[in-house]
Fold AAA+ ATPase domain-containing protein.
Amino acid sequence: MSTLPDKIDQIIKERKLLFQQNKTEEVNPYVAQSEALLIDTVISLALGKNILLKGPTGSGKTKLSESLASHFGQPVHSVNCSVDLDAEAMLGFKTIIEVDGKSRIDFVEGPVIKAMKNGHLLYIDEINMAKPETLPILNGVLDYRRQITNPFTGEVVKAKATFSVIAAVNEGYAGTAPLNEALKNRFVTFDIPYISGDVLLSVLKQESILKDEKLIQLFVSLSSDLTALVESGRLPEEASSIRALVDACDLAVYIPPLRAVERAIAGKLDDDREKAAVMNAAETWFA
């Protein structure tokens, strides 16, 4: 990564010192098609902004969030959104515990409360999968107030200064709903495209157990063809998922590449014509 501004670099160093007692898991760094994406997301988090990552499934949004957390040395608490997401899943729930032989009600903190109290990062995956009426509870968490009144305990929780939110969306998928303007206005937004060419080659070398560089290059070429088919509307976006491509590379260590593509990429599609299109593209490179 290019040299960051001195003030931002100092913030990163201070956070790493602050959280060094929390052993954050080391992850391979996210490799972006444009280095500006990495620089801008790091600066945004260092300044205490919430960031929204927009991109197709498998484009690396979760990987980028993990890389950012590792960069700052901060633990991450995750919320996985669905139509069933409710306040308890985000904030926590009451339960009965035994203390000295007596029963009492205790509150088990959820990921939002934990992240706020500890100044950790909060990752909200597929935020546009949640019901629109569920998310307003986070408005005060995401804006300048950085606080919430816990409806289950009445406690006013004020986030520590290092707390920030990373959210991810897959736009246009079944079950998703557009984010309202009030919610979007609380984020700095980044588009996460699929990577290609030498950048993809580097990622496959880093993430896959496949070490045959010539074979990896063929998978990069296949990815280019699949992306073109996606862009022309002949395949759904998941057909050019980087995650699925890594799976195919891993399988190709032990089984023929065509079978690896069939299992890891084509097999995830429901339409027989789409499966055939993937395999036809694969046969161009692996026949």
